[in-house]
């Protein structure tokens, strides 16, 4: 019998969740106080942990390090997609929120408990992504649910542009020649755009059992980091993604994938940067400490590394690994209408930044204009 540790401060919703957990046949360890949370995780040895979002923020990294096989489900007092993305970046496997709905709760618990680190999950491509979202996605009143669209919404100076997206919870962006890729954790989808005078929607790929947390395109393969701590690569044959391999990463929250020649650099929200071999991603060559707080994006422009710090909301230009990714320059960029910095890509001439929000946006910014 699977055991669930429940620790949320809202007494009314804790009681409702307790009843549903017991009704579903799970063993329950209920904490009315969070003071002994970490000790309870150790002594009760639960299979799954459902906790207040503030505990995920406070202890998420510690739980990932000490108990890598135990999934965290973050409890939120209201449905907030942007906050949910932040919870995922802090280490949660999924989120629940008020009001408590039996179908939603059981679905999330079952999915987390039955989750297996393998690469055998079915892959389905769908153009209309929202018809396949989890039950909680129904709370998002998005006019863009019918179709994906893109439009230029403002100008930010010399050749600087911003674009509005139809998905609100981006977790990655990657520029590859004349194409731009974005990932969205909540819609479980990857979006491909053709870069021109405007960004034109090209293809949308829906992944039934995958929540993308990072994305890249290298060596003719689509690379996706997932909230399950796996790095997957897909071959795009006639635009049909075929899962080739899945590799267990040394940590559970890959927030950026950066190809560089024969290497793959993986940034993680726990503040680490891992160096892997592109041809053997299961082999970790080195680990470096990220000099910022929480990396949500990393790319190589041919001379320097750049990163986006999701906590600080800053853009950093770095030296290479020989100098431990020393920060050379710091920049603060924002998009009209606001938003949380969720990723970065680019080249020698432009930075491509992605921001979560309603709507989420992409900012194309000339490197020469940075001050």
| Strands, count | 26
CATH topology of the largest domain: Neuraminidase
Strand percentage lies at 35-45%
Helix count, per DSSP? 5
Mean pLDDT: 83
- Look at the structure and give the CATH class of the largest domain: Mainly Beta
CATH architectural label of the largest domain: 6 Propeller
CATH superfamily of the largest domain: TolB, C-terminal domain
Helix share, percent: 10-25%
Low-pLDDT windows of residues: 116-157
**Rg measurement, Å:** 20 Å
Intertermini distance? 58 Å
Task: Please give the order of strands in the largest beta sheet.
Answer: 2-1-3-4-5
The assigned structural class equals: alpha+beta
Question: Can you summarize the main beta sheet?
Answer: 5 strands, parallel
> Total domains, how many?
2
Shape label: globular
Describe it.
The chain is of the alpha+beta class and 371 residues long. The protein folds into 2 domains: 3-113, Response regulator (Rossmann fold, 3-Layer(aba) Sandwich); 129-369, Neuraminidase (6 Propeller). Helix content is 15%, strand content 42%. It has 5 helices and 26 strands. It has a 5-stranded parallel β-sheet with strand order 2-1-3-4-5, sandwiched between helices. A 5-stranded antiparallel β-sheet has the order 6-7-26-25-24, with no helix packed on it. It has a 4-stranded antiparallel β-sheet with strand order 8-9-10-11, with no helix packed on it. Strand 25 and strand 26 form a beta hairpin. The protein is globular, with a radius of gyration of 20 Å. The N and C termini lie far apart (58 Å). The model is unreliable at 116-157 (pLDDT under 50).
